[in-house]
What we know:
Layout (H helix, E strand, L loop, with lengths): L2 H22 L9 E5 L8 E2 H6 L9 E10 L6 E6 L2 E7 L17 E12 L2 H11 L8 E13 L1
Parallel strand pairs: 2-3, 5-7
Antiparallel strand pairs: 1-7, 3-4, 3-6, 4-5, 6-7
Amino acid sequence: MKPNLLCNLALAFGLGLAALACSSSGTSQALPAGADFGMPLESRPILHFAMVDATPQKFFDQTLLVEGTVKAVCQQKGCWMQIEENGHVAWVRWETGCGGKFAFPKDSAGKRILVQGSFYPKKISAQDAEHLQQEAGGKIEIASDTYEFNASAVRILD
């Protein structure tokens, strides 16, 4: 091979690698529009809740950005939500706790949302389940062994 051709090939290969590195190390996709609650959302890959719930241990102790549908909301203080996707259900509570600085909109049942927060297993006692039923203002299913998101931010999608 001629020296100039070899240099041109090396240069083209180097530019191609640089372009690939720039495109794959950029920020996550643009987040869909909506109304924000809590802290600002961080740009990161959006995971569907059903995928997270299929292998939950894989997602513990991480900050996730998860999409799902609001199934129920605390009608007293807006301190919790129940989300669902394809039959998978989890609870969402604020990092700041009930009565803290943020509240979920009480009219958000049925809406698609993004939840930013950590994910972990949760046990719900019979007494807590009864309390949640009362706060929901209606009948909701409550499993004793479930999962919960400790949310720092929520976006209700447009």
